[in-house]
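Structure ticket #2291
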Amino acid sequence: MNGVPGQPSRIKATGMTLILVGVVAYGLWAVWLSTRNNVSVDIPIRMTVGHVDTPSFKVNRNARYDIEIEVQKRIPFDKLNCLLGTAMKPKSTELQECPDEPSVVKAAWVLTSDGQIVAHGSSEDHRYGAWGNDWIARELGSFQSEHGRSYTLGVDVLSDGSALTPGNPHLRIEVLSSVYEDEMVGTALVMLCSMLFVLVGGILLLVSFVGDRRARV
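Resolution: structure written out below.
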């Protein structure tokens, strides 16, 4: 039985190309993700009255970043929430959840770049929190970053927060959770497309192999 001359070879080449495209596309996406600067600052902070400056940091993406105080759950959960003041109400005067354990987080912050103020805020303007397996974070504010720009954050701790010391408080600057969610969706789509390319490529290689066998008969 004679096949069409050169047809199995063309099918084989197309199959190998599709597999290569699928593998390379996912690999490039994974490499790109690994280079994204999602956590720009993560340093210990003493929550005693005073001023703290972060080291200069540069971001490589245009994204919204949160400024947070993150504390490990080495303090009883309810008490830690009270000390941090984490609730869904924007102003501290509206908090009624902890009348006997008021929040100890009171801070103001200023973000500068090249000596110019680009953003500022206060813990009084933000009452939101985030909860992980081993930690709770209190948001101090957020800002929009610019790719390639260097920043320095200055934080003035305005009240004694030493009650948080057992939880090893850290000052963190991290992209919003919605950015992670978008990246997860992007990863799923890239993976799906890559798998489709590899699957179609594999089928074409199988067809090519069967064609080669028949051509030899």
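Closing remark: The chain has three helices and ten strands.
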